[in-house]
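Progress against Task 2.4 (sequence-to-structure conversion) is shown through the following example record, which the project officer requested during the mid-term review.
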Amino acid sequence: MDSQVEHNFGGFNGRGRPHQDPPIEREMSLTLEEIYNGCTKKMKISRRIMNEDGHTSSIKDKILTLTVFPGWYEGTRITFPKEGDQGPNTIPADIVFVLRDHPHKHFKREGTDLIFTSPVPLGQALLGCIVDVPTLDGRLLHVPITEIIHPNYEKVVPGEGMPLPDNPEKKGDLRIRFNIQFPKKLSSDQKLSIERAFFG
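Structure tokens generated for the chain above:
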């Protein structure tokens, strides 16, 4: 009976087949610039290490180096096998870092596309304008808009999105969306001009 208990549960002294602890997950927040260009991050962890006597342990710090390749998707998991706490009759857990996008002041990303929202006055929405878009690699795009901007209008600039993870030389698209700004009031002359323009 005792041998059966030891086989299934490791016995009262913790002996038996070693088991591995569940993975330890940590989120790693990266800017879109870091993901666009790729980067190297160093993460410090503290882990319990068994001493040479096999019975006592101590806490030690360790630096893990993560290489982030251009274009990695949010939710990408980077696993460091068996870097968790050591213990008697246990296999250290894997440590898993999960990539998260840090909020950006200009962009959001959808897959490999970058979304940029630009305010535009109603007059420019009707007559056309040029939108300046700062890129993640330090350039400034001047995008001409010649079509009428309606609430669902979207300007697509091919090849100015995020790198494709499996082929960083290729990129997704930049998609410019618009927040049309209506005037709070119009003068009589402005109303008359609009009436003549639309109704003859």
